[in-house]
Amino acid sequence: xxxxxxxxxxxxxxxxxxxxxxxxxxxxxxxxxxxxxxxxxxxxxxxxxxxxxx
Length: 54
Known about the structure:
Distance between the termini: 25 Å
Shape: globular
Radius of gyration: 13 Å
């Protein structure tokens, strides 16, 4: 699973500025990892988001 962020995204009311932080943070977190099974990916993401400051 790879997430690519476009250079100039069009206006989208469903994206908030915090989404850009989360996507960039998630991209850096997942960089260099091998492909994970769906279950392992879910557990990894849950753990990662729990560690982020609220």
